[in-house]
Amino acid sequence: MAIRNILNKKDETLHKVCKPVIKFDARLHTLLDDMAETLAKANGVGLAAPQVGILRRLVIIDTYDGTGVHELVNPEILWKSDETQRVQEGCLSCPGEWGYTVRPKKVRFRAQDRNGTWYEQEAEDLFAQAVCHELDHLDGVLFLEKVVEFIDPKDMEE
Ligand SMILES: [Zn+2]
Question: What is the pLDDT of residue 158?
Answer without folding.
Answer: 58
